[in-house]
Amino acid sequence: MTTISFLGACREVGRSAILIESKSGAKCMLDYGIRFHGEDRLPYNTNLKNLKAVALTHCHLDHSGAFPFLYKTKKIPFFTNSISLAITEVLIRDMIKISNYLHPFGYRELDLLKQNSYFLNNGTRQKIHDNFFITFIDAGHIPGSVSILIEVDHKKILYSGDINTQITNLINPASSINIPEIDTLIIESTYALKEHPPREQLEKDFAEKIIDITDNGGRVLIPAFGVARSQEALLILEKFNYSGKIFIDGLARKVSMLYLDYPDFIKNIKLFRKALKKAQFVSRPKMRSKVKNTNGVIISPSGMLKGGTAINYIQSILHDPFSAVYLVGYQVEGTPGRKLLDDGIFEFKESRGHKNNHVDLKIKAKCDYNYFDFSSHSDNIHIHKYIKNLKFQKDSNLDVFCIHGDNKSTTRLAGELVYKDYNSVAPETGEIYQV
Ligand SMILES: [Zn+2]
Ligand SMILES: [Zn+2]
Description:
CATH superfamily of the largest domain: Ribonuclease Z/Hydroxyacylglutathione hydrolase-like
Bound molecules: zinc ion
CATH architecture of the largest domain: 4-Layer Sandwich
Structural class: alpha/beta
Radius of gyration: 22 Å
Strand order of the largest sheet: 6-5-4-3-2-1-22
Number of strands: 22
CATH topology of the largest domain: Metallo-beta-lactamase, Chain A
Distance between the termini: 7 Å
């Protein structure tokens, strides 16, 4: 029997890891991500003997962050693409450097991961063992993101990874129309209970508000995720002919520069280059002090204001009724970004060794603040549409596993699919299914 072991991302977002095992016992790991809280940060422990290959859907750490752990003792081919490898390296290095948590791996294992990497083009069928193949398919989530089609023992399993089927400015959307007939689907459920607002109107509101504030001498801080969301925000400003100053700091700067090296993964590299040319990169404390009092837009991580270079700017902006903080990603409960949205108060504590690095802030916002839902995950309607457009083999059980979402999202999506006659379930961590 072919089996699927769910080692993470079960009824939660974090430590995505799925192990596929063939009848003959050959194994392939799809993603091996990290979780950012709690005791169990790595995927669920299991027997990894006979692991023939590992494959990555995209660079986000909840999918990639634990991969170096697999390279402590093994030398397994790691299938990815050039942009995902480059950004994964940046993110894992950053994670090892700044995390208070002691990861059971380090730069040595990260180097081994790199040395064993192979780039796979989308649509190329890669053999990993007898009767065992993987194919990458565009996932529309962030530059370089893929879904993975696994062919094992003459069965086809599709692992969506994180998907977006809605149009964005940075990349092309995913589509399930041309995917070959499958037997089993493993689908993400992050926004399975949500409906995103109409994108065009949202972009217009966002740009108009920013233009209005900066035209009146104010400053707008966009605390965006460094990977993809910062660049999407930049492209929206370009689309609406924003002509004021734009500053890009921190990881957003690093990733923006890297994107230029991988033009094939960007929807319109000319436009991206043009937008980036107008922006100024901030990298030194001296420039930061100047920028924080300059009329214009500052794009700077972290996206939920949990840290990052955004913290350098936020104080002076919060005190200014003519400026604004516009969040552009989902704000998890308990994060400073969420507290700002809910209560209008920014609370932040951080201490890093030296007492000069101690930050303790509690500020009532006088500035404007808002949330613009520029998500890179499909919402309820689009997940259902994606599944509807997929073709299942005639004799298949219509198996659909709902993962990568909280308890409510995964179980509710599974329930909705059962109602549509799929054999759907939201697996729990460590569960093994035969398909
Ligand atoms: Zn992701
Ligand atoms: Zn994810």
